[in-house]
Amino acid sequence: MIGDPSELEWAVQTLVKNYDKYASKGGCCCCCKRQRGITKGGFRKMLTHELNHMLTDTKNKQAANKLICDLDENHDGMISFDEYWTLIGGIASPISCLIRQQEESVKFTK
Ligand SMILES: [Ca+2]
Predict the structure, then answer these.
(1) What DSSP letter does each residue of 31-88 carry, written as one string?
(2) What distance in Å separates the CA atoms of residue 42 and residue 27, rounded to the nearest whole number?
(3) Which domain of life does this protein belong to (predicted)?
(4) I need a surface site. Which of 17, 35, 52, 58 has the fewest CB within 10 A?
(5) Residues with CB under 5 A from ligand 1 (ion)
């Protein structure tokens, strides 16, 4: 990549890299058809390691399992990139509300 990435580009790269970090290593890449994904165990590890500030109950195994089952739309026991992205979108939406609320309260206190 030429030059420094923008904050958004950096954020997307971080999200993709985070997925790769936990996805099963089958010597596979995005250009090949073989199904690649994060196992349920790996996904639970990701929740506790990477999302313990944004998601409550990540240490609660039952809650984590329910979240994983909800995300695994095609029930193949793996979290695909699309399913992972659903989680990111699901987290981003309430957080964007929170950020807006914080900005509003800053405006009013000034
Ligand atoms: Ca799946």
Answers:
(1) TS-S---EEHHHHHHHHHHHSTTTSTTTT-HHHHHHHHHHH-TT-SSEE-HHHHHHHH
(2) 17
(3) Eukaryota
(4) 17
(5) 72, 74, 76, 78, 80
| Residue 53 confidence class, pLDDT cut points 50, 70, 90 | confident
How close is the Cα of 71 to the center of ligand 1, in Å? Answer: 7
**CA 53 / ligand 1 centre spacing (Å):** 25
- Alpha carbon 66 to its chain centroid, in Å, reads 16
Could you give the domains of the chain? Answer: 23-109 (1.10.238.10)
pLDDT in tens, 83-98: 999 999 998 888 888 8
CB 38, CB 25: distance < 8 Å: no
Distance CA 89, CA 93 (A): 6
Task: Report how far ligand 1's centroid is from the alpha carbon of 24 (Å).
Answer: 13
